Amino acid sequence: MLLTRATEYALLSLDSISKADKPVGAEQLANELSIPKSFLAKILQNMAKQGILESRKGAHGGFVLARDINDITINSIIFAAEGKLPAVFDCSSYSETCPNGAIGTCVISPFIANFQTKINNFLEGLTLGDIF
Fold first, then answer.
1. What whole-number distance in Å separates Cα of residue 30 and Cα of residue 16?
2. What cellular component GO annotations does this protein have (predicted)?
3. How far apart are CA 43 and CA 9, in angstroms?
4. Are 26 and 44 in contact (CB under 8 A)?
5. d(Cα 60, Cα 85) in Å, to the nearest integer?
6. Which residues lie closer than 8 Å to 124 by C-beta, 6 or more apart?
7. Which of 43, 52, 84, 98 is the most exposed place for a label (fewest CB within 10 A)?
8. Is 80 exceeded by the pLDDT of residue 56?
9. Which residues, other chains included, contact 105 with Cβ-Cβ below 8 Å and sequence gap of 6+?
10. Would you call 33 exposed, middle or buried from its count of C-beta atoms within 10 A (0-12, 13-18, 19+)?
11. Is the alpha carbon torsion for 51, 132, 3, 88 positive or negative?
């Protein structure tokens, strides 16, 4: 799975939110980052549902980080933005999705599984604090 603009926009918005001294609204972020507001609002809501952001209502409302940047993993951001974790190959996550119907007999399956595990571990060990 390639990471899409959703993950890019999530990371860019989290950078802005983490540097703000007050809650940041979706419209402000959309204007600042030149991102379509409706698309960004959906991403922000998904991150709030996943406990990455906290949504505050009212005249001075907006989004703030729900946790410290060192406690927010890149994997959790990708999941919130994409709706699933990244997979190196189509069959990386679930053997039953093998496009060739070679479940259990695929000669590269051990390599794919090992590679996917390394990617998962890397992204789970990487936090916002590591990249901001």
1. 11
2. cytosol
3. 8
4. yes
5. 33
6. 73, 74, 75
7. 84
8. yes
9. none
10. middle
11. negative
Q: How many residues does the chain have?
A: 132
User: Locate tokens 């093998």: which residue?
Assistant: 98
Confidence band (pLDDT; 50, 70, 90) for 104? low
Type of residue at 61: G
Look at residues 67, 61, 89 and name the one whose alpha carbon lies nearest to residue 80: 67
Q: Residue 21 is encoded by which pair of tokens?
A: 């001294």
Residue type, 81: A
CA atoms within 13 A on the CB side of 24: 23
* Average pLDDT over every residue of 14-43: 97
User: Residue 115: what residue type?
Assistant: F
Decide yes or no: CATH 1.10.10.10 for domain 5-131.
yes
